[in-house]
Specification:
It contains eight helices and seven strands. By secondary structure, the chain is of the alpha/beta class. It has a single domain, classed as Rossmann fold (3-Layer(aba) Sandwich), CATH 3.40.50. α1 packs across α8 and α4 runs parallel beside α5. The chain is globular, with a radius of gyration of 17 Å. It starts with 6 loop residues before the first strand and ends in a 13-residue tail after the last strand.
Length: 253
């Protein structure tokens, strides 16, 4: 029970990697709050995982800065100060850069970067007053790669690495550790649907990945568990890439 009694917030925790993190944290004794704008999916996830431990959901679009502050304050009133904050909510927009629309650009940047800062700030204020905590930002292997037609996504995930470093340096003296995770291709329902529809090639991803497979969400959740516990007590300002070697690969074969 590595997180016994800890209060953890997971944004975008209703499905995919976020859900796997919620499930893992519950199994380790945490009290988990999901922040997600998909109310129906959040309710379903809470119902399915409630047998593992105390879990609840807050229906909120993380782009709502004042709403984020209010949500974190209410969580602290009900459960106590937040000990772990996983900023996992994210979106993408796929289009040629010459045709990218302003609204699509702003939605990605506002969700993947600005909202991460507002959530980290809200959690950080509580952690600073309570002796510290762990903040985990969900970046991506695309943060260090150039993927065509994904300018706002790659830009936001790259910026998250810089934000992670800044907050880690600034808040270290407050006992707050800030790290990031940069997953490679993960076999979520969305990725599987894209593969089934022919928009992604699983064989192509595997050829480009030295470990020759996609990750399972639970494997990313284990990294989030490590970063949330004392096992990573001397780790801050870092980005871990559980990507099967995707970003290390340099061959043309």
């Amino acid at each position: 029970m590595q997180l016994d009694g800890k209060v953890a917030v997971v944004t975008g925790g209703a499905q995919g990697i976020g859900r796997a993190i919620v499930e893992t944290y519950l199994a380790e004794g945490a009290r988990v709050v999901i922040i997600d704008r998909n109310q129906e999916q959040s309710a379903k996830t809470v119902s399915e995982l409630s047998g593992l431990g105390p879990v609840e959901a807050v229906n909120l679009d993380v782009r709502d800065w004042s709403g984020v502050a209010t949500a974190f304050a209410e969580i602290a009133q009900r459960l106590g100060s937040v000990d772990v904050c996983v900023n996992n909510a994210g979106v993408t927009a796929i289009a040629p850069s010459l045709e990218m629309k302003e609204d699509d650009w702003r939605e990605v940047i506002d969700t993947n970067l600005t909202a991460v800062f507002s959530c980290a700030q809200a959690a950080g204020r509580q952690m600073a007053a309570n002796g510290g905590g762990a903040i985990i930002n969900m970046s991506s292997s695309s943060a260090v790669l150039g993927l065509d037609r994904r300018a706002p996504y790659c830009s936001s995930k790259g910026a998250l690495i810089s934000l992670t470093r800044v907050l880690a340096v600034e808040w270290a003296g407050l006992g707050i550790r800030v790290n990031a995770i940069g997953p490679g291709w993960v076999k979520t329902k969305f990725v599987q649907a894209a593969i089934d529809a022919g928009h992604l090639s699983e064989d192509g991803i595997r050829r480009r990945t030295p470990l020759d497979r996609l990750a399972q969400p639970a494997e990313i959740a284990q990294v989030a568990l490590f970063l949330a516990t004392s096992a990573s007590s001397y780790l801050t300002g870092q980005t871990i890439f559980p990507d099967g070697g995707f970003t290390a690969y340099g061959s043309w074969s």
